[in-house]
Amino acid sequence: MKSAGVVYTCLTGNYDTLRQPTYINRNWDYVCFTDDEKLIEQKNVGVWEIRSLVYAEKDNALNNRYHKINPHKLFPEYEQSVYVDGNVDVCSPYLFRQIEKRKTNLLLPKHFCRDCVYEEFAEVEKLGYDKPEVLKKQFDILKEAGFPEHYGLGENNILYRRHNEPALIHVMEDWWYFLENYSRRDQLSFVYVLWKNGFDIKNHLIKNARNQSKEFALFPHNLRLLITGGAGFIGSSTADRMLKKGYKVTVIDNFNDYYDPAIKERNVAQNLKKDGYKLYRGDICDRAFLEKVFSENKFDAVLHFAARAGVRPSLEQPEEYVKTNIEGTVNILEAMRRYKVMKLVLASSSSVYGNSKARKFSEKLNVSQPISPYAATKLADEQLVYTYSKLFDISAVCLRFFTVFGPRQRPDLAIHKFIRLIENNEKIPLYGNGKTKRDYTYISDIVDGVEAALAYSRRSYDIFNLGGGSPVTLLQMVRTIEKVLGKKAAIEFLPMQPGDVDKTAADISKAKKFLKYKPKVSFEEGIRNFVEWRRQKG
C-alpha cells in the first residue's frame, strides 16, 4: 500500500538528538535529514530512514530551515508531509485526526502566548536573538505592506502541508526568500507570507505544540548549560543526565571542606575527559571568577545548585550562609543579566515552609516564617530570582526540593549517616520522639523534575515542589534501613534540635500538571539502591 505521506525532521549541527516518536502512524513513512555521520552510517534508526542533508551550507540554522520549507523539492513523490522539529514529540493521534477531519492543505500550531507578529519582533529584539538592523528592515517591509496587527501568530515546530499544491509552493518560496535575506527567526516571516498569499491563518491553526500536553511534548534543544555546584550530590547527578542527552555541560564548584572534597572529586571524575564537559574550580562569591566563566562560554541556561547546605550548621555560621546563598546568587543573576542568559532553574528547598501546620505543603502557602538561616536564605533567593525575572526578562523556575536521597548523597545527611553507623555497629542519634516526618525524594526523580523545568515556558517565573509525595516518619525510615540491611539499629534518643521542622509534606499536584512530574522510585526501593551503591563503591 502506498504511504499516506511522510513525517520528517532535520537535525543539523548537533542541535537536537534523534528520538523515536511516542505515537507512530504506520500509514506514514518517517525520514530524518542530518549531518550526523554516525546516524548516516546506520541508514535506519527505529522508525526513521536516515538521509544526508540536501542543502548543507555553513549556516546550520539555514540548513534546517531549507529542509523545513521545501518538502515539495525533497518529496515530490508524496502528496502530503508533516515536518516535526527535532525537539518535539508527537504523543497521540491528534495531529493525524486533524489532518483527516479538516481536509485542508496546511496546519500549524498556534503561538503559545501571542497573536501578533509585531509583538514577536519586539520579543526577539529584547532577547537579542537577531541584529536590530536586520529586524528593522523586515519590520518595515511588513508595515509598508499594511500587514495588520493581531492577524494571528503560529509556530512552525510542526507543519502539515499538501506540499505539491501550487499555492503552497508559492508560499514556501516567499518564505525562503525572507529567511535567506533577512531574519532566520522563521515565525517573523511565515505569517506575513501566508497573509500576502491570501491565507487566513486562523483557519489553519491547531493546538500549540510547545506546551506539554497529551498531544505533544517539547524537549530542550541540545543546550549549553552552566551547572553551579555541579560536583555535589544533586549537581553532579544532573550533569550526568544532561551529558547523556547530548547537552554541553559546564560545571563550577569550589570543592570546599564542608565534607570531604574527595567525594566531589569522585563525582566528577568520570566526566573530565568527555566531550562537551568543562569543569571550573572556583567560588560563586568571586565575581572575577564568574566573569571569566561567562566570558569564555556561551550559555543557554543556568542550573543554580551552588549553596551552603544544611539547617543546623546555618545556626552556627549564618554569615557564611548569607554570603554564599544570597550574595553568590546575586552574582550569578548579575552575570546572567550581563551576558543575556535568559533561562534559570534555581534549587530551592522545602525548608522555606518552616513549621507549617498544613497537611500538604502547597506552593500557594504563606512562606514568611522560615525557622533557620538556611531557610531564610533560600526564600531570599526565590525573591531575588523573581525580581530579576521581572526586571530583565529572565525565564526562571524555582524548584523546592524535599529531602533528596540516593547515590552520592552527602555523608552528613541522615540516611547516609544512619546506614554507615548501623553497618559499623554504632548508635544512631534520633532527635525527638521519632515521629517527625520527611517527604523523601529519590535523586533520579529530582533530576526528572529539573529536566522538565528546563523545558517549562508557561510563565516567565514559577515555583514547583519536587517531592516523593509520601512522607515517612523518622522511625519508619530507621525500620526500612534495618529491613534492607538485615540488621537492627542501636538508637540514642536526643532532644529536638533548633531549626528542625516537625514535618515536610509536598503537594506535587502542580508539578504533575505542568511538568508532568511523577515520582517513580519508592522510599524502600531508593534505600535498596543506595545501599547497593555504597557497597559497590566500597
How large is the share of residues in beta strands?
Answer: 15-25%
| Beginning-to-end CA distance, first to last residue | 59 Å
pLDDT < 50 stretches? none
Strand order of the largest sheet: 3-4-2-1-5-8-7-9
Assign the structural class, choosing from mainly alpha, mainly beta, alpha/beta, alpha+beta, or little secondary structure.
alpha/beta
Report Rg: 26 Å
Oligomer: single chain
Label the overall shape.
elongated
Using DSSP, what is the number of strands? 23
Output mean pLDDT: 93
Work out the helicity level. 25-40%
What summary fits the major beta sheet?
8 strands, mixed
Per DSSP, the total helix count is 19
Structure, briefly:
The chain has 538 residues and is α/β, with parallel strands linked by helices. It contains 19 helices and 23 strands. Helix 7 (166-181) packs across helix 8 and helix 15 crosses helix 17 (474-485).
